[in-house]
Amino acid sequence: RYCDLAAQITETIGDQLVKKRKKNLKKVVFWIAHKTAAIMSTEEFQFQEPEQEQDKSNSLFFTNSERNELSDNPLRKDSPKTLLPNANVSGGRPDSKASNYFIALDSTIESLQERTQQLIDKINENRKKDHVLMNNFRESLLMKVSSLAEKLEESVFPVYDHNNKLIQDKLQELSEIMEKIRQIENELKQVCHTVEMMYKDLCGQPE
């Protein structure tokens, strides 16, 4: 019974530790996802802002160039598409921004993966430590329960012995009393038989 109680206590404590570890793991995963989303949104905003500024500068550049060329050469008013090569040359900067953005994003994801793996390893290590701790606690609890049971047996056995002796003494007295009652019963039978004989003798004598 004491061993079952110890096992139930150990199992309850183990379940509480496992629930706590799962709760901490959920918090860590939620924090990592939130951090990743925040970093991605920040880098997207930083990437879009220079791209918008570049588009604005390119549009201003094209407008000024077109105005200057049209003012210098009126024959080119009908063909503004000749500035497309310059647009392609100036459009190389967003590509470099995009590549830098994806490189930074990959490095951020790798760092987050490393941190996640480190946290998972730490959680697994703590789980192993908790498992060892629970085993040690179970063993120590079983030892304490067994020692307590032995002490209880040692304290209860003298009481049992004392009560057993008292019961044996009472039974001995009862057997002696029953023997005396049997002797008295035999004596009463003899007295009754004697009285009966005397009564018959008295009744058989003439008046």
Spell out the key features of this protein.
single chain, 207 residues, mainly alpha, 0% strand, coiled coil, Synaptonemal complex central element protein 2, Syce2
Structure write-up:
The protein is mainly α and 207 residues long. The protein is built from three helices and no strands. Helix 1 packs antiparallel against helix 3. The longest helix has 113 residues, at 92-204. The chain starts with a helix and ends with a helix. The model is unreliable at 73-92 (pLDDT under 50).
Topology:
Layout: H1 2-72, H2 84-90, H3 92-204
Helix pairs in contact: 1-3
Write a brief structural summary:
Keywords: Coiled coil. It contains three helices and no strands.
Distance between the termini: 88 Å
Helix content: over 70%
Q: How many strands, which pairing sense, and closed or not: the largest β-sheet?
A: none
Summarize model confidence as the mean pLDDT: 72
Number of helices: 3
E-strand count? 0
Succession of helices and strands:
HHH
Q: Radius of gyration from the CA trace?
A: 53 Å
Structural class: mainly alpha
* pLDDT < 50 stretches: 73-92
Morphology call: rod-shaped
Instruction: Report the sheet-strand fraction.
Output: under 5%
GO cellular component, one term: central element
Protein name: Synaptonemal complex central element protein 2
Keywords: Coiled coil
Region (Disordered): 67-95
